[in-house]
């Protein structure tokens, strides 16, 4: 796939939440992982974020810091990064959550296990993208990314586990349906516990209630779906074959 070097990019990964300090209003996390070929056929290398951290990280003098957002929405900053660094795993971050409503709600979502994933907003740099040929890979290789321009890191709710019911159900096997039901039941349980705690603002509780209704509806759809069955057609020889030689002879040219 061709890389766009002018457009703002987002990249999501299931990365670890290292620690939650509720009393100190802080969360430690990994925003991205190194040496992993992702769904964009990219492999981010250690050092890819070092220049951005130096120029716009927590300790930089720039007033345009790398932002900490919800859903990549610049109107929804949920805190600020107080540490950004690279290690052998990936891009490590410690964030201090904001005292705003969305900051407090995000901290509650971390504690309840609703925020489990993170995503980054960035730009590719043309001379820092190299295609590495590898016949063992589906695309015949992958892109080695040695540097990007990092703008923000975002908290994502159930990012990799959402599905579009129509597209999913059309081709889902029995095993697919069972796995999807198991996943949705687990998420429904997390939401139910969060609702039972009653923590957060009215807006958060309302959003959780709507999410609970959505997951319940999706589970109901899955339970009432017949799994896709692969049909093998048996091709039979016709009882009487056409006499093509006779047909050709009777054609008047």
Walk me through what this model shows.
This protein has six helices and eleven strands. It has 253 residues and is α+β, with helices and mostly antiparallel strands. It has two domains: 149 residues, no CATH class; 59 residues. The protein has an eight-stranded mixed β-sheet, with helices on one face. Strand 2 and strand 3 form a beta hairpin. The protein is flat and about 50 Å long.
| DSSP strand count | 11
Strand order of the largest sheet: 1-8-11-5-6-7-3-2
The biggest beta sheet reads: 8 strands, mixed
Structural class: alpha+beta
| Tally of structural domains | 2
Give me the number of helical elements.
6
Low-confidence stretches: 159-169, 230-238
The ordered string of helix (H) and strand (E) elements is: EEEEHEEEHEEEEHHHH
- Write down the overall mean pLDDT: 81
Q: Choose one word for the global shape.
A: flat
Produce a short descriptive summary.
The chain is α+β, with helices and mostly antiparallel strands.
Secondary structure elements and their pairing?
Elements: E1 9-13, E2 17-21, E3 26-33, E4 42-44, H1 50-56, E5 67-70, E6 73-86, E7 90-97, H2 101-111, E8 115-124, E9 129-133, E10 141-145, E11 148-157, H3 165-170, H4 174-197, H5 202-223, H6 244-249
Helix pairs in contact: 4-5
